[in-house]
Amino acid sequence: MTDTFQLDGVAVPFEPGQTVMQAALAADHYIPHLCYHPEFKPHGSCKLCTVKVNGRTMASCTMPAEAGLEVESEIEELNALRRTLVQMLFAEGNHFCPSCEKSGNCMLQALGYDLEVHAAGFRHQYPDRPLDASHPDILLDFNRCILCELCVRASSEVDGKNVFALAGRGNTKHLIVNAESGQLRDTDIALSDKAMQVCPVGVILPKRVGFSQPIGERRYDASPISAQALADAPRPPSGAEHD
Amino acid sequence: MLPDANPIYGESPRCDLHADLHEIVARHCGEKTNLLQLLIEVQACAGYIPADAASYIAATLAIPRSRIESVASFYSFLHLKPAGEYRVLFSDNITDRMLGNQDLMEQMCRQLWVQPGKVSEDGLLSINTTSCTGMCDQGPAMLVNGRTITRLGSQRIQEIGQLIRNRTPVAEWPEDYFKVENNIRRGGLILNNKLAYGQVLQATKALKPEAIISTIKESNLRGRGGAGFPTGMKWEACRNADGEARYVVCNADEGEPGTFKDRVLLTAQADLVFEGMTLCARAVGAKKGFLYLRGEYRYLLNHLHAVLQRRRDSELLGEDILGERGFDFDIEIHLGAGAYICGEESALIESLEGKRGVPRNRPPFPVTNGYLQQPTAVDNVETFCQAVMALHMGAPAYRAIGTEKSSGSKLISVSGDCASPGIYEYPFGVSVRQILTDCGAVNTRAVQISGPSGMCIGEHEFDRKLGFEDLPTAGAFMVFDDSRDMFEVARNFVHFFAHESCGFCTPCRVGTSMLKQTMDKVAAGHGTQHDLTEIENLDHVLQTTSHCGLGRTACNPVLHTLKHFRPAYETRLKSLDFEPAFDLDGALARARQMTGRDDAGAHLKENE
Question: B361, B362, B516: which to substitute to probe chain A, counting the most A Cβ within 10 Å?
């Protein structure tokens, strides 16, 4: 018999070593998230997956599951916090959904809709973040980066290449590529890399295919992210012990 | 391939990066964990980290080049682009401001024709601000190429400007500039100790490690870095954790603005600190220890190395300490490079490993998974000193000092509006009022206890007592008299947190800069009631969702001053319900700068 914890009053079974997020997704319960990806070691930076565990707020993606925990997730208090976090991410970068080729496939946008973020909330920062179009096949639009580090993790853990890294600190933190020139064309990235597939927003884009899938027929056009995430889950966590 | 040496770069007047780089890398044995130390040396030598030097280091250490950039850009004292042959950083704690640092910085910028934060066109210098350098009792202070200069005044600034203009190497500047006083105003258990170095180590030689731990536990010693975790429990957990090696780390990253007691301990009581570390090593079974010294205290390095060497020569460090077979322990000093967050123990460990100082996810905790994932005891400088005294006196005598839940003494760093700023040591349980009397503070409006992340208390609370029962403190004690504007105090602290946020989690990275903008908006006279509501909303998000203590405490200064000194905010508010964040007149600032105009006609009229 496996142990369980309570998630919004429902018993959720878990395997030893699973986090609250992993167990919840495996048992068909959605907890909003952005920087968490089932194939990578949990990171815990976006804080969208914040839940209340025995009354304390914790990131559910890094919180180890334990028998008897009382976890609350789908409550207005937490959704209000999540809405504010989404507003913060929108205000921090330059996100112009109507002109973005990732519209409809973007997790940040989809979370905005799903959490019913109806207003900007914060003064937008309009940071100056030049594009990198140097690579013949790949465009980097840093304006949309939410610093989730999924590309960093994918390139290092799966591709074994370390194409991406984060530099700077605080609100000057930004994504860089592994080249003395600072340009993507001088890295060993390839279209087939895992790092090409994991960006939850519209930073890493293959060139010349932007609108081949029409708006309206995209991932989150069909069903909201809360349903889509469950359809994709559970994938067996790999590299969970990898550092 | 590398730039030619310039004799006035850096601290050492005859540094030649081209020749020295190979030697610097070799000295660190090509160890990845020494990356930060290596970069600090390159920075000191060349004044910045040249691109080809970064490529060379990456190739030699077999790490991605992006990691060099990633690590270097995390620490504010490291530069990837030339930042001037002279890099002037004014300490910008509120106490420096109260002593007039802003006027002095403006004077220097005018004298040398340079704008704050920009490198002069001839590449000679840059002038900027930095977080508190720990010289609050002898400010205003600055760092020039990493060297501390205290007691700045108009005359001294004038002289420094001349020295820079004449390209005089910093090593040849007058000795007096670099003098740092201890300013010990009241000694006690620690500061008045008459122990000979090695005495307690010798006296406890017969004790088993378990007996050391039980004495520390019985003495009720709690960590002096602020959180107050029971030291004995920490050592015991570290000893009992599974691991291939164990480590002792002394946290001397004294970054909390207004705190400078560790500076004085390392200057006047270095032996006590190292003795405490060695006793801890014996207790937990560690062979290696680190002292993580904040970059601002780099000037202490020679002194500390000399003390370490003397202890090695006296069989107090090294192999078979005091002739005991198998008792091997040595201490290495690692430098920080301008990152407050590295005072957080898991961030400190990341930094020790040569990485960005980002706090780890916990659990697991450092006592089981610390340095290189091995069991690690991280303690504050003062905690190690207290541990020596507890072992020297025995648990009952030590416990008799202080209060029931806070045994022993506490060093308090007093600064701000008082006659005698400096270090005061008291048994725990001393009242705020007593300290104010002793330091000669009059007409005190408020005291900031334990720095920006601590508490701001008003006059009606001055009978409260320092200790874990009431007012826990890491040691900062900044005094504000009735001439001070508490809104400006809070705004200074909010800027500090925004500057020091590591940027890992969304709420702290974005929230601290939003908080800063809102406080600036209120300061500029554009604030409304709506902004105060927004501040409270941001406070809530930061407190509930931040990754570590920095984000969770970043709003304390605002919350506490709003609670006690709300009129300081309200007098600044416009009576309007809403005022756009966009400042029309502010938007013209750039045009004014370009045209060199600042007359009435170049401004939009207020309230038009």
Answer: B361
